Structure to design on (395 residues):
């Protein structure tokens, strides 16, 4: 029945498991282990586990299972595994799938920690990685090989907001039998149709929009039941990247309001982008929801016209102007998260992407003047006035 519910109903009720007390709000099972009535029951539990047969919190927990079931229902995936952070989700999704000698094709425009996993960790263990311009389908085609095991990209890149054609890249990858892993954070689970568009595995940092209030770390990997339980789960439960029950409960509460929050944030982001576009202090205004954005037609098709909750401002005057702008803001906070109820401004070149060589930053469009702006739930008119005043102060 729950599969036929509309999105907001799924977000409130999906995956609920009530204890014998029939509580309204989901219960938090703060336990590291579970008791068996007999030694025979313990033996059977370890031989064959089912959805309600929990062994150890690193393997599974009732509160965590509720979160996994609810987000899988929202995403349209067969199954999900919740992780301790978004990066635990990315590293687990890739590392569990790959072995020495495998080949990966990845978009080059990625979050700094994702690049570290591909360039340093996977390479260290004998996985070959080829990087391409994610918006160029010819480069994807040219990079594929018979031994290409996986494809990885951010559906909307951080922080330059390039949008990758999920369906087209999936078709290219599937021709050689590669598994497509999509980091879908910027697209959000509210606007996402990645599974429907061909993605095999979808990854989220639940720290972002799913929590949406800066409270906990979390991540989740979604895909087929065979992949989640046969490939990912053995790796995650033995390497210890599982989500805590308290964090899972917090994320369940976040899912109840994510549809309302993200739609309001995206609406404000478009208003802000329209208000600041063409400002004399800006070299570039980057927002996928603007008609001038290079992939706006793809945004219309892939995300239903929604440009997301993040925009990037490239200020004239480089780092000095960017810092003046950041320091002049009165409503947004300076931090490195996104998808929060509070608006957050970040200078990627000196924070999230600071380890990249200048040549690589330039290639990715991460200029000294670039500021990533995650739009919160404040009044959009207040944010526009504050941003305009900060731009004037940056001159």
């Amino acid at each position: 029945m729950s599969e036929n519910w509309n999105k907001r109903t799924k977000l409130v009720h999906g995956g609920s498991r009530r204890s014998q007390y029939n509580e309204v709000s989901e219960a938090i099972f703060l336990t590291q282990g579970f008791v068996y009535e007999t030694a025979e029951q313990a033996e059977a539990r370890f031989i064959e586990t089912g959805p309600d047969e929990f062994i150890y919190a690193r393997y599974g927990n009732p509160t965590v299972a509720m979160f996994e079931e609810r987000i899988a229902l929202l995403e349209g995936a067969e199954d999900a595994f919740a992780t301790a952070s978004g990066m635990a989700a990315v590293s687990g999704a890739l590392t569990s799938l790959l072995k020495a000698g495998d080949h990966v094709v990845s978009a080059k425009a990625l979050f700094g920690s994702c690049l570290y996993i591909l360039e340093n960790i996977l390479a260290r263990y004998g996985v070959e990685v080829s990087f391409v311009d994610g918006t160029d389908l010819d480069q994807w085609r040219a990079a594929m090989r018979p031994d290409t095991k996986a494809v990885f990209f951010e559906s909307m890149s951080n922080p330059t907001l390039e949008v990758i054609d999920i369906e087209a890249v999936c078709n290219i990858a599937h021709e050689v039998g590669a598994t497509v892993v999509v980091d879908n954070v910027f697209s959000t689970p509210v606007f996402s149709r990645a599974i429907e568009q061909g993605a095999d595995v979808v990854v989220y940092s639940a720290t972002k929009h799913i929590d949406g209030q800066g409270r906990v770390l979390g991540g989740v990997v979604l895909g087929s039941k065979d992949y989640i339980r046969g490939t990912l789960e053995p790796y995650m439960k033995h390497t210890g990247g599982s989500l805590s029950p308290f964090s899972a409960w917090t994320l369940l509460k976040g899912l109840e309001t994510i549809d309302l929050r993200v739609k309001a944030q995206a609406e404000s982001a478009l208003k802000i982008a329209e208000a600041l576009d063409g400002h004399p202090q800006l070299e570039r205004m980057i927002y996928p929801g603007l008609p001038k954005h290079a992939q706006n037609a793809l945004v219309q098709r892939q995300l239903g016209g929604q440009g997301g909750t993040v925009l990037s401002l490239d200020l004239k005057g480089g780092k000095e102007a960017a810092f003046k702008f950041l320091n002049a803001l009165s409503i947004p906070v300076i931090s490195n998260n996104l998808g929060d109820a509070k608006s957050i401004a970040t200078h990627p070149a000196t924070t999230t992407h600071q380890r990249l060589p200048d040549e690589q930053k330039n290639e990715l469009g991460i200029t000294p003047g670039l500021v990533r702006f995650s739009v919160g739930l404040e009044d959009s008119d207040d944010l526009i006035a504050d941003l305009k005043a900060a731009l004037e102060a940056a001159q």
Notes: Residues 245-276 form the longest helix (32 residues). The two ends are 58 Å apart (CA to CA). The mean pLDDT is 94. The chain has 14 helices and twelve strands.
